[in-house]
Amino acid sequence: MQDSNKPDLDESLNVTTSHEQMLREAAAVVREKHVDEGGKEPMSLWIFGACAVVALVAGGALGKAGSMFDYDETVRPGYVRQTLDTDDGGALPPVPALKAYMSKGEKIYGKCIGCHAPDGKGGGAFPPLAGSEWVLGDTELFAMIVINGMSGPTSTGKVWGVMPAQGIGMSPTDLGAVMTYVRNSFGNSAGDVVTTEMAAEAMKISEARANPGTPVTAEELTAEHLKALPGEPLDPTAMVDPVSLEPAESPSE
Ligand code: HEC
Predict the structure, then answer these.
(1) Nearest-CA residue for atom 37 of ligand 1
(2) Same domain, 174 and 228
(3) CA–CA separation, 225 vs 218, rounded Å?
(4) Is 67 left (phi over 0), alpha (psi -120 to 50) or beta?
(5) Does 120 lie in the same domain as 14?
(6) Are 199 and 121 part of one and the same domain?
(7) CA dist., res. 192 & res. 236, Å (int)
(8) Which residue among 7, 8, 54, 182 has the highest number of C-beta atoms inside a 10 angstrom radius?
(9) Considering only CA atoms, which residue is closest to atom 38 of ligand 1?
(10) Is 80 inside a domain boundary?
(11) pTM for the complete prediction?
C-alpha cells in the first residue's frame, strides 16, 4: 500500500515544484514584457517625431519648390462668382436687339405657322413668306397685312384666298417681334428691327383706315401703305431686355 502511496507523494511534490516553476516562468514573462514595452514605446515616439520633422521640412520645401501648390495654380485667375441681379427681381442679362426680337418673334410666329409653314415657304393654299416682296418691302404695308389679314391678289399677283386678321390679341411688342422674325428668317435678311414703337404706330394707322377690321386689298395696300412705319430705327446690336424688349439701362445708371 505504501508503495502504492509513494507515487502519490511524489506527484504532490511534483505539483508543488511545477507550481513554483510556473510562477517563476510567469514572472519571467512579465519581466520580459516590461522590458519589451519599455523598449518599444520610446522607439515609436521617436519615429513619430522624426516623421513629423521630415513632413514639415519636405512640405516647406515643396511649397517653395514648384508651382503645383501655388495659389494661382489652384484658383482660376479672374474668376468672379456670378449671381443673379436681385435688385430688379432677378432680371435676365440684356441681349442684342435683333436677337431678342427674333426669339420673341419666333414664338409669335406660332400664329402663322399652320398656314405659312415652319420654313415660311407656304404651300397648298398659302403663299410663301420667304422672299416675299411685301414682307421685305415697306414695313407699313407688311404691318397692315398682319393686323387686318388680306384678300388678294398678293405681291406676286396671284390670288390664294383670304387671310384672316392676326392683330387681335397682339401687343405692339408681339407685332414688332413677329415682323422682325419674318423679315429675317427663311432666307429673308432685312437686317433691321421693327420696334415696339413702330408697331404701335402701325396699330394707330390700322384703326384710322376707312374700313377698319376688314382684310386689306392689294389696291389699298399699294395706294396707301407703301411707306416705312414712323419711329426711330433701332441699332440691331443695341442691348435690350430679352423679355420686355425695352432698351436695357446702361450699367452706369
Ligand atoms: C389661316 C391661314 C393664315 C394664317 C394663320 C396667316 N396667313 Fe398670311 N396669308 C394667308 C393667305 C391665304 C394669304 C394669301 C391671301 C390672298 O391670296 O389674298 C396670306 C398672305 C400673307 C402675306 C402676303 C404675302 C405676299 O407675298 O403677298 C403675308 C405677308 C402674310 N400672309 C403674313 C402672315 C403672317 C406674318 C402671319 C402670322 C402673324 C400670317 N400671315 C398668318 C393665310 C394665313
Answers:
(1) 112
(2) yes
(3) 10
(4) alpha
(5) no
(6) yes
(7) 6
(8) 182
(9) 112
(10) no
(11) 0.70
